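Q: Structure tokens for this one, please.
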Amino acid sequence: MPEGDAVWRTARRLHRGLAGHVVTDCDLRWPSLATCDLRGRTTIEVVSRGKHLLHRLDGGLTLHSHLRMEGSWRVHDPAALTLRQLRDPDVRAVLGCATATALGLRLGMMDLVRTGDEPRLVGHLGPDLLGPDWDPDRVVANLLADPDRHVGAALLDQRNLAGVGTMWDAEVLFLERVWPWTPVAVLGADRLREIATHVQRLVDGCRERRWSVSTGIDAPGQELWAHGRAGRECRRCNGTIRLSTIGEPPQDRAMFYCPTCQGGLGPEDDGRRQRPMGERGRERR
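A: Here is the predicted structure, written as tokens:
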């Protein structure tokens, strides 16, 4: 799932392509929006709020979208677009102006609301990692409101802080050497503030990168410490990165971690050998 920095970069691409221009092409392939026509309206701005995208238009309307697991927005030169691209069954939205056309593919959510009603869609979110409302003290208070919750699950709750997904969750806890299943109350306010500040710094540092990087190395396969590296050697201790789950079903999520660096196996991890990610299947002995 695209995380806060990736959604921020998407918003910037859309803003650069559409802001200040009149919408000349609109095709919203979403059941509740199929008859909506935004042609003739001018794009004021496109911004991100956590993992949400808010496309604000004149006349007081906002087109809201969420990428979920596999969604994306791509900005094209209208002259280079082909009918095949426009007819792609993955396309959920087409928004174009004289100089750019944006295609929304595999979007997980789309709404059209009055701009003043945006809080109905994003008002539940905690402080945004990349927003002007960022407030680590408020994040700490949010996290400690459920003191028994595992920190790895609490960081994924967008009501606590907006923009952390499974990747940044795994990366910051690895870097901080924190066992993901530690109750937040055990960590305490000072430690939680350090974790929140660290993840904000990591995400903010990736605004201008092409993709998310926690190691400081942009080379493919070298970008991350733990996420996506189950079955592979830990870059820090030469142990093995493992994959388990965090959170309660149906909200449980993947958690990549190093038992050696972070304090042992997860509660649901049986310790059996895991094949490196990308290899066919998972070997168990």
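A few notes: The first strand starts at residue 25 and ends at 28. Residues 6 and 211 are 7 Å apart (CA to CA).
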